[in-house]
C-alpha cells in the first residue's frame, strides 16, 4: 500500500474512533449565558452617584455600599464587590453577611486561611448563619479535613433536610472517607425527602442510579419559565455531574462538565465558584 493511501486509511480510522467517542456523549443542554444587562449598569450607576454625595448619613452610605456589593457579586465583579464589602466593614465591623461574602471569595481563590478567618467570624457573629456552615464545610473538604467538613455539612443539611444541594454536599464530603456508607446515607436522605420533584432532586436520583443522564437533562428543562432559571439549573446540574464523573475517575468528562457549569455565568452560585476552583486544580496538574 502506498504511503499516501496509508495516510488516508489512518485518517479515516482516527475519524471513526473520534466520532464514536463523541457520539457516546449526550449533546449538551445549553442556556443563553447570562449577561450584564442595561438595568444592571443603570443600578450600579445610580448607587455610585448616591455614594458620591456628601450629604448622606453613615447608615444610608452603608446600605448603598452593601447594595452595590450585592450587584457586583451577582455580575461576577468580585474585586469590586470585595472592595465595597471591605469598605463597609470600616463603618461596621460586625456584619456577618459581609464576612460570608469575603469568605466565599477567598474560598474560590484557594486562600483557605483567609476563608476560615472570614467564615469563623461570620459564625461568631451569627451561629445560625446556615450558608457559612456550607462554605466552611467546603473549605474543610478542600483542605482534607473531612470529619470536620462533615460536621459543618450536616449542620447545613439540618436547616432544610429537603433541599437537594444540602444532601449532595454532605454526600460528596462523606464519600471521601467511606464511599459505600456515603451512598447508603444518600439513599436514606433521598428517601426522607418530602418532595423529590424539587429542582435538584433528579441529580440525587441520577447519583443513585434511578435515572439515566439523558433523563436527568430532560427533566432539568421541565417547568422552566425563563432563561435565567434554566441557566441556574444547568449550572447546578453540570457541576454535580462533573463531581460524579470526577469521583468515577473520568477527569476529561468532569472537566467538560465543569466548563458547561461555568458557561451559564451564574456567578453567585456556589456551584459556579466551585467549578471555577475545580478548573484551577486541573490547570495546576
Write structural notes for this entry:
By secondary structure, this protein is an all-alpha fold. The protein has 15 helices and no strands. The longest helix is centred in the N-terminal third of the chain and has 21 residues. The protein is globular.
Short key terms for the protein model shown above:
285 residues; mainly alpha
Q: What's the topology here?
A:
Blueprint lengths: L2 H21 L14 H14 L6 H17 L3 H14 L4 H14 L2 H14 L4 H13 L3 H14 L4 H11 L4 H14 L8 H7 L5 H8 L6 H21 L3 H13 L6 H15 L1
Helix pairs in contact: 2-3, 3-4, 4-5, 5-6, 5-7, 6-7, 7-8, 8-9, 9-10, 11-12, 13-14, 13-15, 14-15
Question: Gist?
Answer:
This protein has 285 residues and is mainly α. It contains 15 helices and no strands.
- Describe the global form: globular
Helical percentage? over 70%
N/C terminus separation: 42 Å
Average pLDDT score = 92
Task: Encode the helix/strand succession as letters.
Answer: HHHHHHHHHHHHHHH
Radius of gyration: 22 Å
The parts where pLDDT drops under 50 for at least 5 residues are 1-23
The major beta sheet can be summarized as: none
Please work out how many helical segments DSSP would assign: 15
Q: Which structural category do the helix and sheet elements fall into? A: mainly alpha
